[in-house]
Amino acid sequence: GAFICRTCLGTAARLLGESVERAMAQPSSPAAPAMKGLVDTRAVRRARERLGARVGRATLLVGPEGVGKSALLAALGQVVRLGPQSGAGRLDRPEGQPLLIELEGALSPELEDELLTRMEEGMRVVLSVRAEPPRPALVLFGPHGEEPLYDTNALVAALWGLVPRQLLAQVDGVVVLPA
Question: What is the pTM of this model?
Answer without folding.
Answer: 0.69
